[in-house]
Amino acid sequence: MDAVIEKLFSEHDLKSLRGDTPTPLYHQTYMLLKNKILDGSIAFGAKMPTEQHLAEVFGISRITAKRAMDELAGEGLVDRRRGKGTHVTYHYKPEALNAPLMGMLEKLANLGRHTRVKVLDLSEVTPPALIAKQLGLGAGQKAFRLLRVRSSDEGEPFAYYESWTAGIKHGFTRENLESAVRLDVIRDNGIKLTKVEQDLSAIAVSTDVARELEMEVGEPALTLLRQSYSEDGSLVDILSCQYNPRRFIYRMSLGIDEYIGEQT
């Protein structure tokens, strides 16, 4: 694990650890590691990196790294034994996504054309286990991970996006993704999107999301998990959207037959 820990985190992930926020560094480190364990990137039984190696990779003190690992152990995610190291004890299990809501691609594209977007991170990497399985990727295959913040024309940030996209051959550059609509770039790769499914929920925002959306850490954000399918039925894009509820309202319009169907 020590030899590959750097591959699990992008440069943006590592830079998200900041000592000038109310959230202690050990808790920020703990959350980064916890998320990798929960999404299957660090599998059950895997040996965790040493405290010294974590300190070097994350740019933190060894005491901070030890506190983060102790938090993981306290939550039952890892087992720490003197002389044997620390091993993951969490069994990753994929969870089914329920209650899809049909979306409107043109409305999504229209939103993209009338707001501003800033790319925080763009990398072609191996996705977490669940993402790779959903996208139909084999072992070691990569997809594009994109982190963005969308703001109103007045400059108020209201949305934080993390997306994973497969099948992209060209056009996924920082310049393109800040000046063009992401859906248009996907289409330019010959991928025709024919169906969108969404899950709607509320999730407490992390330190980096709170900073970008001008929210308090732990404050609930309106959250959408959007899955886009190509005409052959393949899932090609997974997008997690977190919205500042004070600046964004998600509205759906249903025909009466659809509404009655929702009530039965």
Mean pLDDT: 83
> Based on the structure given, which CATH architecture of the largest domain is correct?
3-Layer(aba) Sandwich
CATH topology of the largest domain: Chorismate lyase
Low-confidence stretches: 95-110, 258-264
**What is the general shape?**
globular
- According to DSSP, the number of beta strands is 8
CATH superfamily caption of the largest domain:
Chorismate lyase-like
Numbering strands along the chain, what is their spatial order in the largest sheet?
A: 3-4-5-8-7-6
Main sheet specs: 6 strands, antiparallel
The total number of structural domains is 2
Please report which band the strand proportion falls in: under 5%, 5-15%, 15-25%, 25-35%, 35-45% or over 45%.
Answer: 25-35%
**Which H/E pattern describes the elements?**
HHHHEEHEHEEHHEHEEH
Helix content range: 25-40%
State the oligomer.
single chain
CATH class of the largest domain equals Alpha Beta
Q: With helices defined by DSSP (H or I, 4 residues minimum), what is the helix count?
A: 10
Class from helix and strand fractions: alpha+beta
Give the termini separation.
Answer: 50 Å
Radius of gyration: 20 Å
Organism: Zhongshania aliphaticivorans
Keywords: DNA-binding, Transcription, Transcription regulation
Protein name: HTH-type transcriptional repressor YvoA
InterPro entries: Bact_HTH_transcr_reg (IPR050679), Chorismate_lyase_/UTRA_dom_sf (IPR028978), Tscrpt_reg_HTH_GntR (IPR000524), UTRA (IPR011663), WH-like_DNA-bd_sf (IPR036388), WH_DNA-bd_sf (IPR036390)
